[in-house]
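sorry for the late reply, my laptop died twice this morning and i had to redo everyting from scratch. anyway the thing you sent over, i finally got around to it. pasting the sequence first so we're on the same page, its 114 residues, then the predicted structure underneath. double check i copied it right bc i was rushing
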Amino acid sequence: MIYSGAFLSSEKANKHIKIAAVLPSVLAAVKSEIQQQGNGNELALSQTNNAWDVTYEWQASLLKHKAAQPIFDTDTGKMTEPPQKFKLWMVELTLEYSGLTKNYHFNELSWNDD
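ok and here's the structure:
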């Protein structure tokens, strides 16, 4: 019985380690996808993928779409409003490996260079 308990604890720890090891790569991939996809008119983004046997799914909802601060135009002598090019997304990320599911929530920024 002790061996069985130790084995189950070890298996559970290995699952947590696997998800923790994959998490930085998954976060980098999600960030890259949001920055690539986030320049359109979409109000929500999502994707499901797999990395090193860990399945992950993320959804991003647009929180804010803003412009930079107004700037003074020396030619006209007036303040000018830059175009809206920055988007703040609220991201929900779910990772699943061998029956263990972990959820994460964070904000991500995207922008277009126009």
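The mean pLDDT is 89.
thats about all i looked at so far, will dig more tmrw
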